[in-house]
Amino acid sequence: MDTIIDDAGERLAARIRLERELRGWSLAEAADRAGVAKATISKIERQEISPTAVTLVRLASAFGLTLAGLLVRAESDAGGLQRAADQPIWRDPATGYVRQQVFTRPDHPVELVRVELPPGREVRMPASSYAQIRQVLWVISGELSLTEGAARRELRAGDALGFGPPSDVVFENVSTSPCIYLVALARS
């Protein structure tokens, strides 16, 4: 899992297996609930492949978690302080999308995520990834085309957008420079 930065890959694979086993789900049942191939889940758990963002979102949603919730469970709890050096960073092998979990705690309703989306890339997230959360996106640098349901918005550095009811979302960087944005998520 060379697309996982540091040794988070091993912990993530173990956590996915643990979440599945805690629910008493077979690979087939987890695959059915998440809409992910059984073979894919098996390969992720055995660390033969690195999961994409979409796959992780689908698995997290099947477990009743946000993506951040799944990732933080894979990491050790550092208390209320999350030092920069301890913030998990994950790279999507399909898009090069880099996600840094700036702050999250199971007992706190707010999460902060820093994302870098490479130029010419897009990430599609299903509506299910936004169930029971509210979020605000703030563009730090670059440009981002964001399609939420039928509404498309062009965001530039300094622009912020609060998301509406859950719908499919496409994050797209059509520029020639990376787009860096911060997402604040609150559990509803």
CATH architecture assignment of the largest domain: Sandwich
Fraction of residues in H or I helices: 25-40%
What's the CATH first level of the largest domain?
Mainly Beta
Structural class: alpha+beta
Briefly note the CATH topology name of the largest domain. Answer: Jelly Rolls
What's the gyration radius in Å? 16 Å
The shape is globular
Largest sheet: 6 strands, antiparallel
Beta-strand residue percentage:
25-35%
Per DSSP, the total helix count is: 5
Give the distance, in angstroms, between the N- and C-terminal Cα atoms: 33 Å
Quantity of strands, as a count: 10
Q: In words, what does this structure look like?
A:
With 188 residues, the chain is an alpha+beta fold. It has 2 domains: 8-74, Orthogonal Bundle (434 Repressor (Amino-terminal Domain)); 84-187, Jelly Rolls (Sandwich). Helices cover 26% and strands 31% of the residues. The protein has 5 helices and 10 strands; from the N terminus they run αααααββββββββββ. The protein has helices at residues 8-22, 27-34, 38-45, 53-62, 67-74; strands at residues 89-91, 98-103, 110-117, 122-125, 133-141, 143-148, 151-156, 160-162, 169-172, 179-187. The strands form 2 sheets. Strands 1-2-3-10-5-8 form a 6-stranded antiparallel β-sheet, with helices on one face. It has a 4-stranded antiparallel β-sheet with strand order 4-9-6-7. Strand 6 and strand 7 (151-156) form a beta hairpin. Helix 1 packs across helix 5, helix 2 packs across helix 3 (38-45) and helix 2 packs across helix 4. Residues 1-6 have low confidence and may be disordered.
